[in-house]
Amino acid sequence: MQKIIASSILLMGFNAQSHAQNKLPNDAIELPNVVVTATRTETPETEIGSAITVVTAKDIADKNINNVADALRTVPGLDVVRAGAVGQQTSVFMRGANSNHTLVLVDGVEMNDPSSPTGAFDFAFLQTDNIERIEVVRGAASAAFGSDAIGGVINIITKKGTGKIKLTAVAEGGSYGTWKTGGNISGGTERVNYSFDASRLETAGFSSADKNLGNVKPNGYRNTNLSGRTGFKVNEALDLGVTLRYGEGKSFLDNGGGKGADDPNSYGTFNELFTRGFGHLKLFDGFWEQTVGVAYSRTDRSNKNGLDPLNNFSSAATNLGEKVKLDYQNILHVHKTNTVMLGIDEEADSLSSFASSDYPAWSYTSSASIPLKTMNTLGYYLQDQIKLFDRSFTTLGVRYDDNNRFGGHETWRANELYTIKETATRLKASYGTGFKAPTLNQLYDTIYGTGNPNLKPETSRGWDVGVEQDVFKKFSTLGISYFENAFDNLIQANAAPYVNQNVNKAKANGIETFMEMRPITDLTLRSTYTYQDAKDLDTGNQLLRRPRNKASFDTDYRFLEKAHAHVNVLMVGQKADYASTVAGYVMLNLAGSYDIHKNVQIYGRIDNVLNKQYEEVYGYGTSSVAGYGGVKLSY
User: Fold this and answer.
1) Which of 583, 519, 589 shows the shortest CA–CA distance to 554?
2) In this structure, what is the dihedral angle of CA atoms 435, 441, 443, 449, given to the nearest 10 degrees?
3) Segment 92-105, tens digit of pLDDT
4) Fewest CB atoms within 10 Å of the CB: 140, 200, 355, 532?
5) What is the pTM of this model?
6) Under 8 Å between Cβ of 201 and 127
7) How far apart are CA 178 and CA 627, in angstroms?
8) Which helix (H) or strand (E) holds 474?
9) How do residues 274-330 score in pLDDT, each as one tens digit?
10) Residue 276 contacts residue 293 (beta carbons within 8 Å)
């Protein structure tokens, strides 16, 4: 696979040079100008030393995808793993880190679930509705964002309404009995802006336990999403805002993966709420910016499994996780070459769970619970951004977290980007440390008996170096970087006794590359490749579900003024899993749209065009060739 990938990248580079000799486009490759996640301040992307990738609303629309996890599949250094059909457990692994080492935000609200076993965010239910862009920062970011950002940050930013009122409605359907409807209203004036969105997705699905192993019962899924964002400008110095995202749904589940895992009556439900209100004040002609915010998240999950031929007992479980966060951030624009940020935030997590089982044949019932448990963390952070000669861009940051159960921990990071203007070359480097407190579930789980109040926090340290090069006035942009991460005190449940322990040390290193080019104005080519070696240092084994090799190739072509076509090739190498090795695969996906009127667009996509049989998780099914189509009305 490595030879195929290398040859493809070289071929794309050769084609780029050939086209460039004939015609250079008048406009540069369209990249987001400003990002906020890497530094917590609005900073041009060309002034950031961190490894960052931005997925835009246009990228999402071009691929006609509904799930955020699918929008992340082509990000270098990031692996998406779904255990079966749409709506099943979906995890993200970043640069070899565990799935719970990535902090997920939506408009500044932390989405990681305090009630989940590891504190990881499950991407199964997160839809792309009303999203403006997704910023992915790879590498330890605890110095800026605290615990949970030990491996990186995924920040989802929703759309802000502007201009006269806009109305949008969509309806689509397709394979596996899938349909979706939704609508959006947005607009704004000098004083007020608003954007509200609602959608409903339902699918009969396919068997999450792999149908190729004899499982036939499909696992259906439904999801209702509401999201909104509004802002009010009180005067030239003060503006206020509120953001909210709510989701609820139901997924039918199988009894694991592999042979004989079909379950006719097992299902899970979820209710998720994420909201934040904030005030932003500028003083002394913008010299001093202050932001005060309060955020609240609530994740309510339940699972039920009735009596059936596979189970001689019924079971039910509920889990409730809540998080409240207060933050106060100050930005001082000391000089055009120097921006200082300092802030304080306090976070309160809570967890409560209950589970019961009923064995009618034995006239026996049992129950267990985790009574309300809480954890508080108070954090202080300081950051300095330094610009020198419009060539050197340095970010230095330090943070101190005071956890009421684990005491104080310091983290820090340093990033540098140096631009050689004469050759359009950008040299990048970063180093950072991370800290993650054990979750309340890891500490106090009495339902399954894995809780261990003597756990220590997990820590990390990582660095990367890289170079980006513009070719022929941004006709093409290429980049390559090397990264290395080390993780200590990793938490896992031992086989005997089955209890959480700090037993692992792990290390991951690798190479990330990307290329973007525009041979002609209406054609854009993108490619990414990641090689990573992620190992458990205690056993010498590869970390599970992290492929050594991953590559993607994307082609966007606009033609006939109203038509658009997208071609995606995704290549994922083999990876280790709990029961066996999961074979690698190559996937071809197509998408397209056509504007039949200025207010009417039809669109569609075909997943797994070549009808490949493959697995992302051993024993769990994936989609065969599937088609979807819809119509979008706008006014």
Assistant:
1) 589
2) -140
3) 999 999 999 999 99
4) 200
5) 0.92
6) yes
7) 10
8) none
9) 999 999 999 999 999 999 999 999 999 999 998 887 778 899 999 999 999 999 999
10) yes
Say which residues have a Cβ less than 8 Å from residue 243's Cβ, sequence separation at least 6.
106, 107, 108, 109, 158, 228, 229, 230, 275, 276
Q: Are strands 51-56 and 43-44 parallel, antiparallel or unpaired?
A: unpaired
- Which own/partner contact pairs does 353-358 have at CB distance under 8 Å and 24+ positions apart? 353/115, 353/317, 353/318, 353/319, 353/320, 353/441, 353/447, 354/317, 354/318, 355/315, 355/316, 355/317, 355/318, 355/447, 356/315, 356/316, 356/317, 357/313, 357/314, 357/315, 358/313, 358/314, 358/315
Secondary structure of 528-564 in the HEC alphabet?
A: EEEEEEEEECCCCCECCCCCCEEEEEEEEEEECCCEE
> What pairing do the DSSP bridges indicate for beta strands 523-536 and 476-493?
unpaired
Q: State how far the Cα of 405 lies from the Cα of 205, in Å rounded to an integer.
A: 43
Considering just the CA atoms, what is the radius of gyration of the chain in Å? Answer: 24
pLDDT at 496: 62
342 Cβ contact partners less than 8 Å away, ≥ 6 residues apart: 329, 330, 332, 380, 381, 382, 383
Sign of CA dihedral 204, 212, 5, 534: positive
- The first and second tokens of residue 67, run together, are 């799930």
Joined together, the tokens standing for residue 198 give: 């609602």
Q: CB–CB of 432/461 below 8 Å?
A: yes
The whole-angstrom separation of Cα 207 and Cα 257 is: 10
**β-strands 563-572, 314-335: how paired?**
unpaired
Residue 165 neighbours by CB distance under 10 Å? 11
Cβ(497)–Cβ(474) under 8 Å? no
State phi, psi for 616 to the nearest 5 degrees: -95, -35
Mean of the per-residue pLDDT values of the chain: 91
Q: Which residues does 27 contact at the CB level (< 8 Å), separation at least 6?
A: 521
Structure tokens at 180: 């979706």
The answer to whether domain 2-634 has CATH 2.40.170.20 is: yes
Q: Which of 490, 406, 409, 407 is nearest to 440 (CA)?
A: 406
Closest CA to 282 of 292, 294, 290, 274: 290
pLDDT digits (tens, 9 = 90+) for 337-386: 999 999 999 999 999 999 999 988 788 888 999 999 999 999 999 999 99
Question: Dihedral sign, CA of 90, 224, 604, 76?
Answer: negative
Cβ–Cβ < 8 Å for 527, 515:
yes
Nearest to 26 by CA among 421, 472, 470, 468: 472
